[in-house]
Design brief:
By secondary structure, this protein is α+β, with helices and mostly antiparallel strands. The chain is 35% helix and 28% strand. The protein has one domain (31-161): Heat Shock Protein 90 (2-Layer Sandwich). The chain has helices spanning 36-49, 54-74, 108-114, 117-123, 133-140, and strands spanning 2-6, 12-16, 23-30, 82-89, 93-99, 143-148, 154-161. A hairpin with a 5-residue loop joins strand 6 (143-148) and strand 7 (154-161). The chain is globular, with a radius of gyration of 15 Å. Mean pLDDT is 77; it is low at 1-19.
């Protein structure tokens, strides 16, 4: 059953009601690239232990890695900042929410605009080395939603269905 979930800023995101949550894990990680590898390993292991096929677990790992990397590079104020990763799994889905604190100066509107489906597709340039992460995460997950949060950063919701959407 798909139900709308109201968010803190009043936006509505689509998602499944998770009534049979089997796992809920939250990590608060310093905003530093040295934590990319352990985060990838944790996400992949959690997905596999939750019943996702190995290939799908790797897709989830890559998608989370791309969003986590962006949160570190673009959504953190620097030394002392943290990125939160909250994971929910059930018999049907895995939802990962990556939350950054923002950089201040009311920059969250810029990120919401640049992370929209249209902007992702319009800004994609295959010949460049950078800038493919959002499109990659978008294509590796069944749902990807971005919302502002109360700290001036963004929350990125990734939803993956075990049977596909």
């Amino acid at each position: 059953m798909v139900t709308p979930h109201p968010t803190e800023n009043g936006a509505i995101r689509r998602g499944r009601t998770v009534s049979n949550i089997t796992c809920c894990a939250e990590l608060k990680i310093p905003s530093d690239t040295i934590y990319l590898r352990p985060v990838r390993a944790f996400i992949r292991e959690l997905a596999e232990n939750s019943g996702f096929h190995h290939k799908k677990a790797i897709d989830i790992e890559i998608a989370v890695d791309e969003i986590f990397s962006n949160a570190i590079e673009h959504g953190s104020a620097g030394f002392g900042s943290q990125v939160a990763i909250c994971c929910f799994t059930s018999d049907e889905i895995m939802e990962v929410i990556i939350t950054d604190s923002g950089r201040g100066q009311n920059s969250e509107g810029k990120w919401i605009d640049s992370w929209s489906d249209t902007a992702i597709k319009e800004e994609f340039h295959p010949e460049t080395e950078r800038g493919h992460g959002l499109l990659l995460a978008h294509n590796l997950t069944d749902e990807m939603n971005i919302e502002t949060n109360s700290t001036g950063g963004v929350d990125v919701h990734l939803v993956i269905y075990k049977g596909g959407r």
